[in-house]
Input
Amino acid sequence: MRTQVCIIGGGPSGLLLSQLMHRAGIDTVVLERRTRDYVLSRIRAGVLEEGSAAMLRKAGVGARMDREGFVHDGVFLSTQNRGFRIDIKGLTGKSVMVYGQTEVTADLYKARDDMGGTVIHEALDVCPHDLDTNAPFVTYRKDGAERRIDCDYVAGCDGFHGVSRTCIPNAVLKEYERVYPFGWLGILSETPPVSHELIYAGHERGFALCSMRNTNLSRYYVQAPLTDTPEAWSDERFWGELKRRIPPEAADTLVTGPSIEKSLAPLRSFVAEPMAWGRLFLVGDAAHIVPPTGAKGLNLAFSDVHYLSEALIAEYEGEKGATAGYSDKALARVWKAIRFSWWFTTTMHRFPDQTEFDQKIQNSELDYLSTSTAAQSTLAEQYVGIPY
Ligand code: FAS
Ligand code: PHB
Output
């Protein structure tokens, strides 16, 4: 088989890249290790930056998002149960879209099907070859048979545990990482959201987040030790801890119910440089990971797709070398989001070894945020997403 761009990974970044390439007349094949059902079973992100929503519309995949998503003009923060609202729309003129990653991925799969896109599931042992030549190819195993795809470029959209990043020689690749000493215990419950906008709650017992998927599907998180397991958190224990950490007006109106999903996600900041080597380009979680505090993971994947799709289209339109600037351009935005997510995580979470001085600094940071328009503008412009 031959294609122009071979995309490894059928998550949101691989599917969006494939969709944008197809609409530009560029042929792609997506190789996905898992079944479609497995990919669609993952519960992940919930907030789309305005730029991400615009990209989905540009790709012809925004209709259901615009019908069923929630446009949020503000967000609540709280410190030690005292809440305040940040008027994102008033401060930036922009909003965010609350629409789950699961739905985004489902919409992208449908769009790929509708356009007759090629997505090969259960593609095993995917391996890129000859990336430092102008004739790379990718091998994989499907139904027990070895297959080969010859292509012009390879997009590594295969997430943090994928194969693509490992193809960059150790002498070239540089990795930067910070692992946080806690995780997020998240649940889904078929209950009405406690608030019409998200609540990020800092508390000396630990962080909590109130989010949603629709008017009867809520998403909640509490910070938990990495030594915990979801099984160690009964629903009763979860709801009790959430109520202790959020503002009283939310705790008093919180509708609880049985969890229909419960998981513990570790938190890390990670960046791999460069995001390109020869004819290979890394996209999304294959190149960087952020703690979900700033809701940047999925959105960074989409800004990578924006830069790479523009560069590949330019190459195929005759602008030789258009892809040469991809890594530097993507990393410039990645590092700003890495910094914002690190700052927000450090400000909102309780660290096991933190001192009373550290707690006073956190309280003061949030107190300053609650009263300073300048501080709120800085947070707001990063939360809605800095321009591409
Ligand atoms: P993905 O990991 O989504 O997709 C990669 C795909 O490649 C997967 O389908 C995988 O099966 C496939 N793959 C891997 N190796 C392969 C191989 N060798 N061959 C073929 N295919 C291969 N972000 C937020 O903004 N907010 C959140 O709340 C949030 N919560 C998260 C919770 C968890 C538990 C995790 C893991 C991530 C979370 N994220 C969150 C980040 C997440 O949303 C990612 O940023 C987003 O999925 C990035 O999309 P992709 O880059 O497409 O990577
Ligand atoms: C979510 O709804 O899952 C969500 C929202 C905002 C975040 C992280 C997760 O910062």
Observations:
- The radius of gyration is 21 Å.
